[in-house]
Amino acid sequence: MIRRPPRSTLSSSSAASDVYKRQDFDYMNRTGKREGNVSNMANTMANWETKLAIFSLYRCILRSLPLIKHAFWLLKPLDKMKDKVRKRFESNRYVRDPDAVLHLIHNGWVEYNDTIMFRRHRASLSKFFDDYDDRDVLREVYAEDEGKMLEERRFWNGEEQRREGPYDGHWSQVAKAHEEEFIKLAGRVPKGWTTSKGYHDEMRPDGTNYWEKNLDYQGWYMKNVDPDSANTRKEMQGWIEAGYNHPKHYGSKNRRAHRRYVKDIESVMESTVEESYARNREIFFQLALRDDFPESNRIAAEKLLAKRDDEIFGTKWGEIEKYIKQTMRELPNPRMWRTDAFYCRYRHLATDLEYNWAKVPIGAKQEKLFNNWVSDSANYAVYSSSAFEAVKACKTRNPMARSWADFYRDFDPDVAETRMLPWYHADFDYDRRHNWDIKCMREKKWINNGDVDAVNSFFDSHIHKWEQEINRGTKVRDAKFLENKLLAPRMVQLYRSLNRLMDVALANQMLAKVDAGALSKCKTDDERQAVVNATDFSKFTFNVPTVIYPDNFPQAPLGIDGTEQKQATA
Length: 570
Hints:
Layout: H1 15-22, E1 27-29, E2 44-46, H2 48-71, H3 78-90, H4 98-116, H5 122-129, H6 135-156, H7 173-186, H8 210-214, H9 217-221, H10 229-244, H11 256-270, H12 273-292, H13 298-313, H14 318-330, H15 340-349, E3 356-357, H16 364-374, H17 377-383, H18 386-393, H19 404-410, H20 416-419, H21 436-444, H22 458-467, H23 481-513, H24 516-520, H25 525-534, E4 548-549, H26 565-569
Antiparallel strand pairs: 1-2, 3-4
Helix pairs in contact: 2-3, 2-4, 12-13, 14-15, 17-23, 17-25, 22-23
């Protein structure tokens, strides 16, 4: 610690000596830990500067208290006000974090400036300087002050100026005329993307637009009660003609960049999805090369672009495009088109395009039905037998054991059987939402590359894909990020339930092939399993239950095995 010089060497009235006498010149680092020496000053600060700032703020507040007391008409004694300020400072006397101290000093100066510049209400100051020990009294004071402020605000907002005058509720003929003008003005608002031509103004060849030719600027830019309205209107018309129409003016919608921006939006609204994608395909490739594959992995970028080609040209965009553009009209700002709000609104509108799923039990309801089913000795014998496992894994006897790679490898547009998925209804229209032949033929080329799942079955592949979306950090926030995040647990539960439904249906169909008489004579589970394993299932073929029906197809609720519920529970 640095020793103080004798008091006789400095004047007691000097500001420097006053600060010098009050400070302890100790040094500490940014974390508040005391340093043993001061040779390393890189991470060290002298905290006497902070103390100097604290005392400077403290003295300024104390010196301004008489002015505050007089200007705000505070009835608190001056010594009580000083004591309140001192306690407020002492409440933070043990704060050691330098950043926190600087933050408190900053807040103090802000409150001080707000007070002396009369930006604070008298009620807030009186609450600060008053000590209320009784909470009921404090509540009454708060209610009284807030009530007064609300009444004052209500009056100045015009709520007290009720429409009880002789001129259709108005107190003057002028006010009545103003209301009529506003009603006329409200009917002249041009249509936006929400209904017709466009969100941005349509420019005319003479450099003007719809607003400047057809709207009354007096009603849009100023209050109608301006006594100098004629001159103001002339002045504002001069602004319009001189500045905002100039092609290089920052606020002009006539400048080149803005006109190109509007034209791009118009071209998007007037073109199909395939046309927009083909127009921007090279840009997508360059962005993928720059952002997604920073190691200049051109092959990976080309692969991503090829997969996007498959998605775009394998989908029928007619009905989807209608809902996309409706969402673009409802959210006309292009900045909103990459947000979750846009995607959620589009999915809400496109609900009719969802598949017609079967009404199968899922979750707790399925667990209850499955427990009742597996409690039967015959069902359990088939379900736990080695023959069941063999049939379930055989791709010739069980179509659901095949993978997506097997389906795409055998796909032939000219053979109807290879175009159909086993869990779809026989009358399902595959070309309703997709160019089915194009989509499947495009997927063929990814089989040998390893991009199509050739290991897991149909539903297990979906489960594996959706499990990747659960608790996974995503670097790229794509359009489907929100949907995947919210739907992933539910989709995993759905496909696991469908897997169990297929297992129960397979076990029931196998049980129908087993000799019921021999099975009824068995006493133990091992004997029943031996009977099941001895049954010849070489010519058995699993009849897959229907899970997805054609659109608007009437269907009854299904049981645990995919049949109608009455048959399943009988």
